[in-house]
Amino acid sequence: MSLITLKNIINHFSLFYVNGYPFIMMVWNIILAMVPFVFFLLFSELWYKTRFKNLSDKILGAVIFFFWLIFLPNAPYLIADIRHLLNFCPVNSYLNVCVSGAWEIMFFFVYSVFGWAFLTIHLDQMGKILAEIFGRTASRALIIAIIPVMALGVLFGLTERFNSWDVFARPLAIFQYLLRYMTSWEYFRNLLAFTVGYYILYFFGTTIFKQKLAKY
After folding, report:
1. Cα-only R_g, the chain
2. Among the four residues 62, 68, 88, 206, which has the most C-beta atoms within 10 Å?
3. Are 147 and 186 in contact (CB under 8 A)?
4. Entry pTM
């Protein structure tokens, strides 16, 4: 299915828009943000059943973890959707506020909070399993290493319009853009800002949701 066809379907079935952004796309993004949870359940079930004693179990565990990782950016990507608030008011609006569209600010804020919550839960859940496998210190180091990769995935989707499955469909294109993020200050600055932001959100997320996360 081409992107044009998908866009036509979305436009046809979208009955509600927020500042020109189709609500059905928001629902789809939330569904994608929950996909890592499915792979986490598969990973944890495999670990508790096999403890990765055999080589085949280790390989299968690595494959499941890889799929968890490439779909992980869909969670914090919800936060990036707040960009649809940019320029939602005409330049000459009174006090630069549109009365008719002021509600959109709260709508996109709440929507982005879902991304924050999913980000925190996904990383915390996987971190606990990794702590059982490799130890707490190694688990923390892995989470610290995962967050920049996650931020890069979000930027790939945001600025280059890649999807998670493009890891398999367009690997060479992804590698080319990866080099651009490593060699261009403008691109690297975005990566740095997103990475630091996600570190802060994860830290405060685990602090705020500590009691809730302890139940998972």
Report:
1. 19
2. 68
3. no
4. 0.85
